[in-house]
Design goal:
six-stranded antiparallel β-sheet, mainly beta
């Protein structure tokens, strides 16, 4: 989306963007793949490190080349460079 004639930095730099909604839905944009997946922990690779999502009944509701939508009871997010 263009705002005032420029693109947000995350749109052009490949930086990860995370949107958490009510601790039950998570959208991760600009990921670079799944490292591990089970119903209590999902690890994603990003341009600058790794994102770990801990919770219960975690599931991938959609998955694409750069975007992943995760549902379940999300308890903790951790970014490791």
């Amino acid at each position: 989306m263009r705002l005032n004639g420029f693109l947000p930095a995350e749109a052009t730099s490949g930086a990860m963007r995370v949107v958490l909604t009510a601790q039950s839905a998570l959208l991760v944009e600009q990921h670079q793949g799944i490292l591990s997946f089970d119903p209590s922990c999902i690890r994603l690779r990003t341009k600058n490190g790794y994102l770990t999502i801990d919770g219960q009944n975690l599931a991938l509701s959609s998955y694409g080349a750069q975007d992943a939508a995760i549902t379940g009871q999300i308890r903790r997010l951790e970014f490791t460079p």
